[in-house]
What does this fold into?
Amino acid sequence: MHEAKVPDSVQFYVRHALGVLREQEAALNGVQLARGNGHILSLELRDREGKIKQALGRLGEFRGHAAENGVDADAFILECGGVPDFARFGYSKPGGGKPGAYDSTACGIKVIARPTRVGEADLLDGRENEVLSVQGPTGNVVFSVSPAVPWTHDSIVTSLNQHDAVRAVDGDVADAYLGDCWIGGTEV
It folds into this structure.
C-alpha cells in the first residue's frame, strides 16, 4: 500500500484534487444526460475547464514530488479511485496529440515542444542537453535547471512540475526555454 509512504497532508491534497475532478465529472455527466453531446455540453465544459486543469496540475505536481521520493504516484491515485476520464465529454487532454495540444504543468506553463502532427518539428531535437529556463514577465530568469541526462518531453514536464518551478512562477506570466528556443509559456 502506497499510503504509508505518502504523508497525511499530501494524501489530503491528492484526494481533494480528485474530489474536485469527480465533482466536475458529475456535473458534466448530468448535462450530458439531460442535453446530449451538443453545444450546451461544450459550453459547460468550457466553463469548468479551469477547475479541471487546476486539479490535473495539482496531480502533476504530486507526481513530480512522488517520483523524487520513490512513491508510485499513479498507483496511489488509482487507490484513491483514479482520475475521471473527461474525454467522453469532448475534453482533449493537454499534450493529447491534437493540433494545438500542449503539455500542461503545475507551474502553469504549457509546453508546446512535442510535435502534434506528422511532419511537425520536434522542438527538443538537438536541444536535449540545453539548460531549461523559465523567464518571468520582465525577461529575468526565475528558474533554471541543467539536465543530468538528455531531456525528454516527459522530463521537461516533470521539472516544471517541481515545487521550485511552481514557486518561481507563482501564478505570474512566464515563458520556458530550452537553450534559446522558446518551448512554451503561461499565455499559450
Q: What stands out?
A: The chain is about 45% helix and 10% strand. The chain has two domains: 8-89, 103-185. Residues 94-100 have pLDDT under 50 and may be disordered. Helices lie at 8-35, 39-68, 73-79, 153-160, 163-169.
